[in-house]
Write a structure and sequence with these properties.
Elements lengths: L3 H19 L3 H7 L5 E6 L6 H5 L6 E6 L9 H13 L4 E7 L3 H6 L8 H14 L1 H4 L5 H22 L1 H10 L3 E7 L6 E7 L15
Parallel strand pairs: 1-2, 1-3, 3-4
Antiparallel strand pairs: 4-5
The protein binds cobalt (II) ion.
Length: 211
């Protein structure tokens, strides 16, 4: 039986000890309160760790991750995270961060059924259909997939703006700012692809007038 998991526990002890050496009050302080300024919605991919790639410390970033960083309006998990982050933690920024070379995006472009995940990836197929003419301008499959990665992030930002949670915070507290980013697995660099400030108008059919 593999015991690689034991390394995680020993690394953890080492990390906790080092942390106390650097900052004796670290755990005491963090155990009482968290005041993150950012909500991160990213891909579950193990190569895109939110805190590492942004140099953020424990307590600085509230994280939700799922396959292909989707904002689905029936996902009670995402909605709970979003509501808590916006209404209780009062985050100033929400970041949706996709990444080039995303397996979820690639799988959504294919026609093979993969099981339960088909239902999840269906959301990406919808993004593909909406932006088909733009994606099909790209000539090879990798470029098409990378274009879909960017358009997917844009679409998820719009999905955030469609929620009553974000619209309410925009109306009464002029926050949060929404940011769509794409991370490059090849170079570790994040490319901003879109932004939406409080009060941005989206298609009026999605705007609630009684919040
Ligand atoms: Co991914």
């Amino acid at each position: 039986m593999s015991t690689t998991y034991k390394k995680l526990l020993s690394e953890n002890k080492h990390w906790a000890t080092e942390q106390v050496k650097l900052d004796p009050d670290f755990f005491n302080r963090l155990s009482h309160i968290q005041t993150p300024e950012f909500l991160w919605i990213g891909c579950s991919d193990s190569r895109v760790p939110a805190d590492k790639i942004t140099g953020t410390q424990p307590g600085e970033i509230f994280v939700h991750r799922n396959i292909a960083n989707l904002v689905v309006n029936t996902d009670i998990n995402l909605l709970s995270v979003l509501e808590y982050a916006v209404e209780v933690l009062k985050v100033k920024h929400i970041i949706v961060c996709g990444h080039y070379g995303c397996g979820g995006i690639r799988a959504a472009m294919e026609n093979r059924s993969l099981g339960i995940i088909d239902k999840w990836l269906r959301n990406i197929k919808d993004v593909y259909r909406i932006h088909k003419s733009e994606i099909d301008k790209e000539l090879n499959l990798d470029d098409k997939a990378n274009k879909l990665v960017e358009l997917n992030v844009r679409e998820q930002i719009v999905n955030l703006a469609k929620t009553s949670i974000v619209q309410k915070a925009w109306k009464y507290e002029q926050r949060p700012h929404l940011h769509g980013w794409v991370y490059g697995l090849n170079d570790g660099i994040i490319k901003p692809v879109c932004e939406m400030g409080p009060g941005t108008h989206i298609d009026p059919i999605y705007e609630y007038d009684n919040l």
